[in-house]
Write a structure and sequence with these properties.
The protein has helices at about 50-55, 70-85; strands at about 25, 30-35. It is α+β, with helices and mostly antiparallel strands and about 90 residues long. β1 and β2 form a beta hairpin. The chain is built from two helices and two strands.
């Protein structure tokens, strides 16, 4: 599943640069994660990097975006292919 940022976010700016898929951006009030780009760092790292650096632990799994590790790997491969084509 993709990750999400809750309203406990303090806009500390540490998660955005850690995302290897550029899935994190500033929203209207807090940072947000694009679920179409979030692979939970599958393909890049063993653990989601944004969760590792978040000082307030406001980045849980998104229950509305249930995805298997295989599905996350397929998303990673598609994102990498799109980067090469760009």
């Amino acid at each position: 599943m993709a990750l999400m940022i809750t309203d406990e976010c303090i806009n500390c700016d540490v998660c955005e640069p850690e995302c290897p898929n550029d899935a994190i951006s500033m929203g209207v009030e807090i940072y947000q994660i694009d679920p179409d780009k979030c692979t939970e760092c599958v393909g890049h790292f063993n653990e989601p990097q944004c969760q590792q650096v978040c000082p307030v632990e406001c980045i849980p799994l998104n229950p509305d975006r249930v995805e298997s590790k295989d599905a996350l790997m397929q998303k990673y491969l598609a994102l990498q292919a799109a980067k090469k084509d760009a």
